[in-house]
Amino acid sequence: MSDNRRNTPRKDAFQVASLFAESGADAQECLVWDVSATGAQLELAPEVVVPDRFTLQVTAYEPPRRCRVVRREGRRLGVCFEG
């Protein structure tokens, strides 16, 4: 996912975050590679099944963000923030 399709600049993040599915399942850890005002690039363990929409909690100091998957490439996801 080296091509930049976003209209807003990306900022390197390299942070561990928690992904929460709507189904109430346990949180899954992911790595946030980069983030912009409109979305992020995430990486997850290969066995993790990610729904098309979920909530992402990057830090305890930031509010959770609703996400929609826009691109899947192997273990990496491109997501856009909703609302």
UniProtKB/TrEMBL annotation:
SUPFAM superfamilies registered for this protein in UniProt: PilZ domain-like
Q: Where is the PilZ domain?
A: 4-82
Top-level taxon of origin? Bacteria
A Pfam short name: PilZ
Name assigned to this protein: PilZ domain-containing protein
Recite the lineage of the species.
Bacteria, Pseudomonadati, Pseudomonadota, Alphaproteobacteria, Hyphomicrobiales
